[in-house]
């Protein structure tokens, strides 16, 4: 598994360690998750990737956090080439929704990587992720919930569910040659406010930046695509954002009680 020291990688390892032998490929072995074998595997160092992937029957290629698209594509292609040279049995790649057709913009690097994996001839599974719910759970501030989402639906999913789904794909059968469009249960900020019993107020965007861009996408209904892929691979429903928000409120009020 590459990029195994990140938030997603650590969650996947928690699911895999009891099911199979795991090797964590990390750019800094000092940051490797405890309890599994670690090897150095830096996306900018092809030789390290070849050694890290040696002997792997399955590789989880976790996308790089690099923001520069060309550099990010170069890193992913280094990993695909290394996987091919190391004779990896199959690759699961954490892609992004829309990457099957989106050759430009936000999905450009994901699209280029999917295409490179297909060209490599390696057996593959694409795990197309939505935005992670973890960054979107509404919080009550001064007695209300606000957002700039126009009350539209969001198809986000929690890292924890996406990690379990990745572990199921890596250890299960019948996933090769497939592209999964993983989405969580659709939700909206006004719905969560109603469930929490607080008012909802639409506010203007805070200003230019990644969140404003995402909010514009949400207002245009671009996050309302929904599939059953995640719950089918999990074998259960994915966690709803409203459940996490309710739990956060209850834990917070318990803290206040103590
Ligand atoms: N769908 C979404 O909403 C969303 C949100 C955020 C990110 N993402 C994507 O999903 C990926 C996983 O998410 P995450 O939450 O686990 O991200 P994260 O916690 O930021 O972890 C990123 C991982 O990438 C590793 N990394 C960075 N540069 C590397 C390099 N040159 N070679 C090898 N590994 C390198 C980091 O290693 P170190 O520990 O050494 O830094 C870390 O393990 C991200 O990398 C990003 O591509 C998706």
Automatic annotation (TrEMBL):
Pfam families: NAD_binding_10. Residues 4-171 form the NAD(P)-binding domain. This is NAD(P)H-binding protein.
């Amino acid at each position: 598994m590459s990029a195994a020291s990140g938030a997603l990688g650590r969650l996947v390892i928690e699911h895999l360690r009891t099911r199979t032998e795991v090797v964590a490929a990390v750019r800094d072995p000092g940051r490797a998750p405890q309890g599994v074998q670690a090897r150095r595997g830096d996306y900018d160092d092809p030789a390290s990737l070849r050694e890290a992937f040696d002997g792997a029957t399955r590789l989880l290629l976790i996308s790089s956090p690099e923001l520069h698209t060309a550099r990010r594509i170069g890193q992913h292609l280094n990993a695909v080439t290394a996987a091919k040279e190391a004779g990896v049995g199959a690759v699961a790649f954490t892609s992004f929704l829309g990457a099957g057709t989106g050759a430009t913009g936000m999905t450009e690097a994901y699209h280029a990587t999917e295409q490179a994996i297909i060209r490599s001839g390696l057996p593959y599974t694409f795990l197309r992720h939505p935005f992670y719910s973890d960054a979107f759970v509404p919080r009550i501030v001064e007695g209300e919930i606000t957002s700039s989402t126009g009350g539209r639906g969001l198809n986000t999913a929690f890292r924890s569910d996406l990690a379990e789904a990745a572990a199921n794909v890596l250890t299960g059968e019948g996933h090769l040659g497939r592209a999964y469009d993983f989405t969580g249960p659709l939700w909206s900020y006004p719905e969560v406010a109603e469930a929490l019993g607080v008012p909802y107020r639409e506010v203007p965007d805070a200003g230019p930046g990644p969140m404003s861009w995402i909010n514009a996408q949400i207002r245009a209904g671009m996050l309302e695509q929904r599939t059953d892929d995640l719950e089918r691979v999990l074998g259960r429903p994915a966690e709803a954002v409203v459940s996490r928000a309710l739990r956060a409120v209850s834990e917070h009020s318990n803290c206040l009680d103590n």
